[in-house]
Structure formats: C-alpha cells, structure tokens
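Much of the work behind modern protein science is quiet bookkeeping, done one molecule at a time. The fold becomes a row of whole numbers, each drawn from a learned catalogue of backbone shapes. The protein below has been through that process, and both of its lines are reproduced in full.
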Amino acid sequence: MSIKENLKHIKQQIGDRACLVAVSKTKPNEDILEAYEVGQRIFGENKVQELTSKYESLPKDIEWHMIGHLQTNKVKYIAPFVALIHGVDSEKLLKTIDKEGSKNNRKIPCLLQVHIAEEESKFGFSKEELLEMVNEGVLDNLSNVVIKGLMGMATYTDDEAQIRKEFASLSDLFQQLKNGVFAKNDDFTEISMGMSGDFLLAIEEGSTMVRVGSSIFGVRNYQK
C-alpha cells in the first residue's frame, strides 16, 4: 500500500480517539509531502539536525514534534519552532528548555517522559523521581515551559498483558497528577504512548497521542 493508503487505514483505526503523530525520522521530504497532501500535519522526528533541516524546507503549517532523546546542548536549535517535546527526561533538560524558551519569547510545550518499561535502555523519570520533582515545586519556577502531559514507551515484547500493564501504569500516574498538582492546570491533557506495534492497545489504556512511523512510511531507512 502507498503512504496515503496506509495513513488512511491508520486514521480509520484511530478515529477521533487520539492524535496521530506521523513519525517521519529518516524519511525523505517527498514521503512527508505525500502524507501532507492527504491532510497529515503533525510529524515526529528524533534527531535535531534532521528536524531543523526538514522544518526549513517543508511547509510552515507542519507541526513538528521532537520525539527522541534530547541533549541539553541541542535544545537551542529547535526552541524557535518545535510544537511539542515528547521526551523531557530530566530536571536539567527542563530548565534548559525554559531558558531557551525565554530567549525565543515563547512557551515551549513539553511532555514529561516516564520510564514504564522493564528494559534498561529507555530514558525517563521513575515515578518516584517525577513525583518528587513536581511536589517540590520545580515547575512553578519555569515560566517558558508548558507541561502538556506525560510520555512513555512500553517494553519491546509480544506479551500483550505486560504492554497493557505498563500503559495502564502511565495512565494511573497521569490521573494522579491531574487530580493533584495539575488539578488547576488546563494544559495538562496528553498521554503520549503507543507506536506502530501497539498503538491500539495504548488508546484502549488511555493514550491521547500515538507515534506511528513504519505502519505509515514502511520500514525505517537506517542511514550509515
């Protein structure tokens, strides 16, 4: 199937239950434009250099999401335009984003990444670290960051029960925060979880935003 057909099929599966982020990392501009032509406007990239070059060369009404691990020294390159940073996984990164937001006179939308998988390779706050940070009032001093919600990645496994359990744990934490420190915060609305292999499970467990790449664009192009 073509990119257009893949996209149509996935949108039919999702309906209006979640926002679709088309993960375009390693994909050429013509593939992104094919998705753009059928109405897709939200794209996700995981490398800053690739993200900035695509932002410069593609239509300006595209909403670019940074979905990969972000190093503090790279924040300045995307701060002027990024629509959402999914993987904020440390207090240091959060403070850097706030500083760069201030320089660009804008509030940068962010998701706090929580480590929900059993794999060691995934980034993110532990539940305890996150609760400690928000309860200490760290976020109160950041005027150029908007915390939109949480992000998490499930273990890479065929065990559906385990994936569900991990997604459910993120949803539970989101509700705990929404009922607590974010109770009066109307911006705190998003749970970004679910990728090509598990996005329907994620939606069932409360995801509001799914990151789908290979099911739209085909297998990733790994650059040497």
Remarks:
- Residues 3-217 form a domain with the TIM Barrel fold (CATH 3.20.20.10).
- The mean pLDDT is 95.
- Strands lie at 19-23, 42-45, 63-66, 84-88, 108-113, 145-151, 190-192, 209-212.
